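Why this split exists: single-chain examples teach little about how molecules sit against one another. For that reason, every record in the complexes split bundles all components of an assembly together and asks for one structure covering all of them. Below is a record exactly as it appears in the raw files.
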Amino acid sequence: MLEYVWLIPLFPLIGVLINGLFGKKIKNEAVIGGIATLAVVGSFVVACGILFQLISMPGEERHFEKTIFTWIQSGTFKADIGFLVDPLSAVMLMVVTGVGSLIHLYSIGYMHGEEGFYRYFTYLNLFTFSMLLLVSGNNLLLMFVGWEGVGLCSYLLIGYYFHKKSAGDAGKKAFVMNRVGDFGFLLGLFTMWWFLGHNYNVWTINFRELASHADLIPAGGVATAIGLFFFLGATGKSAQIPLYTWLPDAMEGPTPVSALIHAATMVTAGVYMIGRMNFVYIKSPTALLVVACVGGATALFAATIGTAQNDIKRVLAYSTVSQLGYMFLAMGVGAFTAGIFHLMTHAFFKACLFLGSGSVIHAMHHALHHVHSDADPQDMRNMGGLRKKMPITFLTFLIATIAIAGIPGFAGFFSKDEILWQAFSNPLHGEVNIVLWAFGAVAALLTAFYMFRLVFMTFFGETKLSEKAYHHLHESPAVITIPLICLAILSVLGGYIGMPKLLGEVLGGMPNYFEHWLEPVFAYSNNYMAHSLPGAHGEHSPALEWGLMGVSVLIACCGIAFAYALYIVSPTIPEKFTSAFPALHRAVYKKWYVDEIYDFCFVNPCKALGGFLWKGFDVVVVDGIVNGVAGIVKGFSGILRYSQTGYVHNYAYGMVLGTVVIVAVYVFR
Amino acid sequence: MLALNNYLILSAILFSIGTIGVLVRRNAIVIFMCIELMLNAVNLTLISFSHYLGSIDGQVFVFFIMTVAAAEAAVGLALMIAFYKNRESIDVEDVNMLKL
Amino acid sequence: METIAIPAINLAPIMPEIILSCIAMLLLLVNVFVPSESKGYLGVLSLVGLVATAASVVSGWGQPVAAFGGAVQLDNFAVFFKLIFICSAALAILISDKYVVREEINHGELYPLILFATVGMMLMACGMDLMVIFLGLEVLSISLYVLAGFNRGSLKSNEAGLKYFLLGAFSTGFLLYGMALTYGATGSTKIGNIAGFVATNPQVATNSLFVVGMLLIAVGFSFKTAAAPFHMWTPDVYEGAPTPITAFMSAGPKAAAFAAFIRVMIVAFPTLKHDWTDLLWILAVLTMTVGNIIALSQDNIKRMLAYSSIAHAGYALVGFTACNPEGVAGILFYMLSYTFMNIGAFAVIVLIGKKGEANGNVQDFAGLGQKRPLLAAILCVFLFSLAGIPPTAGFVGKFYLFSAAIKSGYIWLAIIGVLNSAASVYYYLRVMVYMYFKPSEEDFDWVGMTPAIAVCLLLCVATTLVLGVVPGTVLELAQKAVQF
């Protein structure tokens, strides 16, 4: 089955070709959606097969490379079309294809009746293809192809409702910010290639080859530069400070798109990339510190904004940014496995949350349409009491929310707690560790708060809808609820494969399967940390670990209690708070005015420069030169043609003149 | 026999006269006669070379040239007649419909 | 009585010429004795004759065979060019029937004349003696004078024939004088002997007789290939002659002139290479530039294609200037592809034209893209090939010529060539703009396709595209052909 790894990206690509070329003619929604979904399901089946085959192999040998052909060979630069299967990519493949299949299925129901149905599925399949290239490519350039591809599809899908100016603008914003990040990625790629090649004559961008030469990379200096360049790319793709403002705007796209791209897969590309390049990052504590600080700051910053938003999808968007901050925090303290673990569990519960919100919006839209109301179906202030009318949606949403809040027993707890523990105990960054842990802890408090605020405002309490509208609410069809149920189950059970040792001992010796699985990928870094870095991984008392675990649970419960108090017990408190601190509330609501600052500093000057270059330079100078040259040549033509007078004598004269000149030149040389 | 140079100079003069004739004269038939003059100048050159080199090739060449010149004359005159039928003139100044 | 010793004459090398001449003469007789109004059967018979000739030509591939004491040599070079001539004659015959019927010049002599012209061309290609080359040139030229003036009722055709005749005979005078001087300086008219003499007596290169002789020969051939400044007859003659004849003239005789030119220059005067390559450099640049620039302002499409053929001769001269095997092989390939793409374009012009040579302007092509899309697409293929846009044969040919020039160190020549190619795109694509983007009332219903023209178009399009995509085989043959 390993031999057929190339089938995994191929199936969605076939889906793109079929739906893209013929989709307009196939009017049947079931066929179009079916083709697209089956393609991803096919990839999932192959991925499962590969996973099982990997499991059956002994630990050190769990890697397989399949090169299809050499794409570029130019001097010393060589890039293949090839695929790398190892534990890390296997995890990513399973997540992308598994969650992707569920979301494709969900989309069939959600996008029912939309014009451009085939266009949606073409783009979705194209995205899946690009993402699979990204995670399974065996060299930096192929990963970059996937990296760009997902950026493109993100733009296409965010701007799916292209009649709305806000959707088009959001798509452009996402693309441009991604592009700024991609610049960093390319700089990192070239620096890496040039450094190893120029100094050690090792010209390669293949992951395994780079990893095998990891010893050649000295600590500090170059490693920091490479790490920071790549991280710039990651901030763009994974929406960290400073390039995160596109993610909330990206909610203009259809909800399944938000679930797939902006929760489960594309935004995790940056985390995956750091995981792949871990052997470079470990050489540069500075770069790791930057990653961790940015991650922690983003986690806290986004969480604060999330508390004041009223649009259900916006809350989830800021929650995504915040959780991504956690993942980077983990990578930044050297806990690569924990970061990937949180990536996986986050995919489950965030996708479930987004799909659930989609179900809610769908129902709200339907109900409001029935009573000809103009109210925003996504505004939580128009909701309330939905749990009676949409039980399955409510239940799955609740499960996912409990998971994200970090309550023990659910997936989110294991991953988030592991990150907080590593942040606290890992001595990589000395005193800063405690600060990072504090950031993470406060963010966890806010996360629990605003997520349960969302649940309470949407599903509990008195409904803000009119009687008639409320009556028209109903549960979504099976196509929508089945993925919800699957993801909710995964939100519960998904965490058990990564149980920390401490808890595992309590529950009868259950090992941390996930850590063990990813060990070969991060072995080099773990070794390096153990031996080379001062004060690395000392022994920590189990008591400290239990203690911190308890603190995490306490924080989560506090957040939930706070939300309960504000939105169930006495719903008037929030209003009193906002009227008491209007400036603070407005600042938080307006996302701390970051968008406005960017507009002033970057967007408007760029627009002005573009306008000047267009009117002043392109039209006047470039067009002038091109048209001028053409005009001159045409002028010559008009003049020269008069040499053809039509008289035989003139022609003969020309011939004789030519002959005389030629002979004279030669004879008198 | 005279020195080779004399024959060569004579044929060069004839050739030049022919060329200038083509450039100056207006009657198409006279132009053609000048062309024939050029060809005969070449014939003269060839024969004189043949004699002085002792090789018969030049004279064989002359036979071919004379034959071809005859054929050309026939064709050329036919073309002039056809032109005259339509244009009532064989003045090459009138051969100017195709231009620019 | 003394028996005259008849030398053993090996007729095999000139068997193609013999076959074709006999068939042409036979057709003349048939034309007189068969009292039929339509002369299409003559076309069919001449095609059959051409096929037979081609078979005889192909059998000569491989080892060179000389005859007549070294005056004629059938080698790969000659075989390649003879096939080009036969193709050009066949294609011209295919498109001529419709034209002559429409213009009411349906005289049967057209076909034998084309065949005689082909015989002349074939002699030029295989001639290894200045006399034989001259004979071939004259047979070709005289047939062409008649063909150019074939339409006796049209003043333009008369004028074309007369101009061609006067200027052609004039240039023949120069050519002959050059040959005479060369003969005088080297003692022989056989090209092989001339080369031998030059090799053993290098001081002859300073002999002004010899140099002038060589230059005059070059001038004579430059007239035939329409190199500037000897190109001025081309636009007028091409515009006035009947369209199928123009098609024929633009392809076959040009290739024949290049064949003889290459043969004489490279075989007879190889040691003076640096002298005449300088001359050719200037000729190439002048020719390309003049041809392309004046073509920009032409409206009559035949005249435009005439100037374009001048420009294409310029590109071929670039390969000649390079004077390395790649360059000369490039010329061979270019002549082959040029035959097909140019006659193909003329075939479409024959279809679009109306009685009295009306409908011959670029503007008359307006709307063809909508009304007759297939025909317009075919013309587009030819226009792209002429402009040198991949994946057509024209691009491959230009690529090889220019890369040969760069290999020889003529970087500026290649740059000028490419710039000229770029400029030429304007007037080729202007036709396309009219075809597709200008509205028109014309519905082109009266454009009638005949099987002959259909076959011709098919062959031309197929060759243009195939040579553009897989030129390897033909290029190899061309490279083998220039090893003499």
